[in-house]
Design a protein that fits this description.
The complex is a heterodimer of chains A (about 475) and B (about 450). Chain A has 16 helices and 15 strands. Chain A has about 475 residues and is of the alpha+beta class. Chain A has two domains: about 240 residues, Metalloenzyme, LuxS/M16 peptidase-like (Cytochrome Bc1 Complex, Chain A, domain 1); about 190 residues, Metalloenzyme, LuxS/M16 peptidase-like (Cytochrome Bc1 Complex, Chain A, domain 1), CATH 3.30.830.10. In chain A, β7 and β8 form a beta hairpin. Chain B contains 18 helices and 13 strands. In chain B, β11 and β12 form a beta hairpin. The radius of gyration of chain B is 23 Å and the shape is globular. The chains are: A alpha+beta (about 475), B alpha+beta (about 450). Chains A and B meet through α2, β8, α4, α10 and β12 of A and α1, α2, α5, α7 and α8 of B. β15 of chain A pairs antiparallel with β9 of chain B.
Chain lengths: ~475, ~450
């Protein structure tokens, strides 16, 4: 089975597989649109607000007798006090520790005993907690989630043990993997001023110094009904959710101290940056390129839609321009692709990557990526490419609407980063208005050297692992074979 | 090509085990799942599929499997099944790779293939409106794959690049070493993704030969969920699968010797955190004790924060971010496997804690309260697996692969409820042998010191 890890969404690709981890694609949340008008099955979304400011979204889906609850806080790693990197994610872990009502370390166990599954994740802009349960258990998990919004109890021992867990998490996610280390360095270069340059999980030395007071003061500042969005999807009707929400979250006081999310913004860059990591564990030569670009939340009208479709044509899958150019025709790369990280509150980014074919140097790959980008700037994309990518992209929503938990996640994400339900629902129409001219203009505006960070991952000489006769070193070698 | 490779990498570290585990782990009140109507559809041409008809969304999810996965790879061609699974959208019939993939995109379809140890898995999702074209593309892929030389070379390069990364990925290294130690010369001891040498040696004719041998109607199971009725599905089945040979030509796979240690291998790698895989022989899916064993594993390490290993290793001591265990009831050799990752200085301590928890559970069994919690989770959560069309299709596929019967969904929670504390205690003694673990450690582990850990 899958582990129940408290998952952090790293804004990163895994160069080994070229899988985009971070960016939640908007396709998955569109709810109307020509390509899918007959779909009609798009659930009717109901939205309301409690007196204490809690925003509530209900997405009915009666196919299975189960519900998904998600609570989204409008706070993430980019809201951390300077020098306390990792506290948003640390607090997310600590939220499972206990309250006056929930005994220590029992939260997930109680959910499990109720036949449910739960988890949480932290990003630069949002922190979210969720449970999936049979519908008759919804009141229970709503009561539990409301309770820990206001009544978290932490002991020094809880905090100390969990800090060790998080340091292990950092080793697993970052330090054991040179690809992740490079991504961390590239993000730090791309966002020299904005806190997106600080890793969500935190820098190791700052994690090591986090304490109970840091966690509780972050909690008191940001965890409140007026800074949260409740999303309930599944076999339930809006009126029932309203009644339950008023009986649980409705009892909590709003927090007037919650005010805005003023982060230092990234100034324009005036020179490209290059980051090189040589590591014996690097595997194959990999080149990545990031560009600063607006996100859906920060873009001028229509611009994010153009970038979104541009990156679909340019870099998504085996029919993309970069794959055709570097893998199929040029044979410089074993794999190549890219992504648009479009969901940030303050900024987005465009990414390209290529994994070298045998015997190809990083410089050759870099030149190859340059050529693809230059052609995008010069020639843009064809109408046929646009049409094909757009049809498939818009249609993806039907696949997403097949899962209540995915619907909850995608609506929640967009609402927590400043969109409205209407924005989400009108997105396919906005995509339909994008022209090849818009896409070329977006390419020319944002695929600019000075906006970029290029990362080289290079295998260093020497072997990372040896499988020789090491067994004598085993702590309890009882070698038999 | 790339997506196939990526999917496999991300989904199937242990081949079939992943899917088996998800089958067994995930679903709502038993009664309500039981009301879902599963129809056994037999096409005019005699091809069977299980169908859950639902018109709530305009889409169709199909899953299918051919018995005969990576275990069918010839001795010197490790990775052949995996290679094929990455080639399935690289051109078929009149369409070369690019034409095929452009068509996939234009049809907004999703198609994936995975090679696991015992089965080759396929999945297709389509909008109802595009179903005829999509199923025809699937027919082409299965019955007239091209395996063009340039596409083969492209995928070969991708697999080789992937293997190069795997060499440096501590989890993969630990898993491959574990399989070697546990299964030795048995096909399960060989790497599903092959080796540099075996991948380099695979020719298009090998791919063709494997497809001819394995893609056959008598080894095929199919599940379909969504916006399609039985009659239409019957026509689709004949169209897509009717052109396949009636009979597969599989090599016999011997049953593996049940893996038991003690045996411990350390593979040095310059990483700050050691990654460990431990385990030994498991229990077959058909064994009468499988359900108690499954519940035992939930209590030990399969239940996330409800499990003893998580409690003792992570919650009490902060030794790891993740620690868990699973049963992998492969057809020819079931195993029980656990994983943990701990900083080099503390890995000995982590392993001591794990071994002593295994011992304690084998000696004393779980408590009544643990059994009650396991039952309430497993019965309550069963419905969660049936939340989406693709989820339902996956469940129905694995029920067929494991040959559990079309009434299994309705019976399953009663099987969980029927397990007694004595059953689990008996199975704990039968299954767990804490001093006979096979353990692989990748990293720079510092030898274990004292066993007097805090907590």
């Amino acid at each position: 089975m899958m582990m129940w890890i408290f998952d952090q969404l790293l804004p990163a690709i895994d160069p080994r597989i070229g899988a985009l981890v971070a960016s939640f694609s908007l396709a998955s949340l569109a709810v109307a649109g020509a390509a899918v008008e007959k779909a009609h099955s798009a659930p009717r979304v109901t939205e309301f607000k409690l007196k204490n400011g809690l925003q509530v979204l209900v997405i009915p889906d009666h196919r299975a007798p189960v519900v998904t609850q998600m609570i989204w806080y409008r706070v993430g790693a980019a809201d951390e006090p300077r020098g306390s990197s990792g506290i948003a994610h640390f607090l997310e872990h600590l939220m499972f520790k206990g309250t006056d009502l929930i005994p220590a370390a029992q939260f997930s166990k109680i959910v499990a005993r109720n036949g449910g599954e739960d988890n949480a994740f932290t990003n630069h802009d949002v922190t979210a907690y969720f449970q999936r349960v049979a519908k008759d258990r919804l009141p229970t998990v709503m009561e539990m989630e409301a309770d820990r919004m206001a009544n978290l109890r932490l002991t020094e021992e809880d905090v100390a043990t969990e800090r060790d867990v998080i340091l292990e998490e950092r080793r697993s996610r970052v330090d054991n993997d040179p690809g992740s280390i490079l991504q961390e360095q590239m993000m730090a270069a791309l966002y020299a001023k904005h806190p997106y340059g600080i890793p969500i999980i935190g820098w190791e030395h700052e994690i090591a110094a986090l304490d109970r007071d840091d966690a509780l003061s972050f909690y008191r500042r940001f965890y409140a009904p007026n800074n949260a969005i409740l999303v309930i999807a599944g076999d339930v009707e809006p009126e029932e959710v309203r009644r339950l929400a008023e009986a649980t979250y409705g009892k909590l006081a709003s927090n007037e101290a919650v005010n805005g999310r003023a982060r230092p913004q990234e100034p324009p860059h005036s020179a490209p940056v290059k980051v090189t990591l040589e590591d014996p564990r690097a595997g194959r030569i990999t080149v990545q390129r990031y560009y600063l670009a607006p996100s859906y939340a920060s873009a001028a009208p229509g611009e994010a839609e153009a970038l979104d479709l541009l990156m679909r044509v340019a870099a998504t899958g085996p029919v993309s321009k970069i794959y055709k150019s570097l893998v199929v025709e040029g044979r410089k790369a074993a794999n190549a692709g890219g992504w648009y990280s479009d969901s940030g509150l303050d900024s987005g980014r465009l990414g390209f990557y290529a994994v070298a074919a045998e015997g190809v140097s990083a410089e050759e790959l870099d030149t190859g990526i340059d050529a693809v980008i230059e052609r995008l700037r010069q020639d843009g994309v064809t109408q046929q490419e646009l049409d094909r990518a757009r049809a498939s992209y818009i249609a993806e929503f039907v696949y997403t609407s097949d899962s209540q938990s995915r619907m909850a996640r995608h609506y929640g994400w967009r609402l927590a980063t400043g969109m409205t339900v209407a924005d989400v629902e009108q997105w396919p129409d906005r995509l339909k208005r994008v022209t090849v001219e818009d896409m070329r203009a977006a390419a020319r505006k944002y695929l600019v050297d000075n906006n970029s960070v290029t990362g080289y991952l290079l295998p260093a000489p020497g072997h990372a692992s040896s499988t020789g006769e090491k067994r004598a070193n085993a702590p309890a070698n009882k070698g038999k074979s | 090509m790339a997506p196939g490779v990526a999917l496999l990498r991300s989904l199937l570290r242990h081949g079939a085990g992943f899917a088996v585990a998800s089958l067994i782990v995930s679903a709502a009140p038993a009664a309500e799942v039981a009301t879902m109507k599963i129809e056994r559809v037999v096409s005019p041409g005699g091809i069977e599929a299980w169908l859950v008809e639902s018109h709530a969304n305009p889409l169709i999810a199909m899953r299918f499997a051919f018995r005969g996965g990576a275990a069918q790879d010839p001795n010197d061609k490790d990775g052949l099944a995996y290679f094929i699974s990455s080639m399935m959208d690289e051109g078929a019939g009149p369409l070369d790779a690019i034409a095929f993939q452009e068509r996939e995109q234009a049809l907004a379809m999703r198609m994936d293939f995975d090679a696991s140890r015992d089965v080759m898995l396929g999945s297709v999702q389509t909008l109802t409106a595009n179903k005829d074209e999509v199923f025809d593309l699937l027919r082409l892929a299965l019955t007239v794959p091209r395996f063009d030389q340039d596409a083969v070379e492209r995928v070969r390069a991708q697999i080789l690049a992937g293997l190069k990364f795997d060499e440096n990925d501590p989890e993969t290294v630990a898993a491959l070493a574990w399989d070697r130690l546990a299964f030795q010369d048995h096909p399960y001891g060989r790497p599903i993704k092959g080796t540099k040498a075996s991948i380099a040696a695979i020719e298009p004719s090998d791919l063709k030969h494997y497809a001819d041998r394995v893609f056959a109607r008598d080894k095929l199971v199919i599940s379909v969920v969504g916006d399609i009725d039985a009659k239409t599905l019957g026509q689709v089945l004949d169209h897509v699968f009717g052109g396949l040979p009636a009979h597969a030509t599989l090599s016999p796979v011997a049953d593996a010797n049940p893996p038991l240690g003690p045996n411990r291998e350390i593979i040095e790698m310059d990483v700050p955190q050691s990654v460990v895989q431990f385990g030994h022989r498991g229990i077959a899916r058909k064994d009468d004790d499988f359900m108690p064993a499954y519940m035992l594993n939930y209590i030990l390490g399969g239940g996330g924060f409800a499990s003893r290993l998580m409690e003792e290793v992570r919650e009490k001591r902060g030794l790891a971010y993740s620690v868990y265990s699973n049963l992998y009831p492969y057809q020819h050799g079931a195993v029980f496997i656990g994983n943990v990752a701990t900083k080099n200085e503390a890995v000995g301590q982590s392993l001591d804690v794990i071994e002593s928890e295994l011992k304690r559970l084998a000696d004393q069994g779980p408590t009544e309260a643990e059994l009650a919690s396991a039952k309430s989770y497993l019965t309550g959560a069963y419905a969660l697996r049936f939340e989406s069309s693709s989820g339902i299709a996956n469940q129905l596929l694995w029920i067929q692969i494991e040959d559990l019967g079309i009434d299994y969904v309705g019976k399953r929670n009663a099987l969980v409820e029927a397990v007694t504390l004595d059953d689990i205690k008996r199975v704990a003694k039968r299954l767990i042998e804490a001093d006979r673990l096979i353990t692989t450690i990748v990293g720079k582990p510092v030898a274990a010191k004292a066993k007097d850990v805090p907590g």
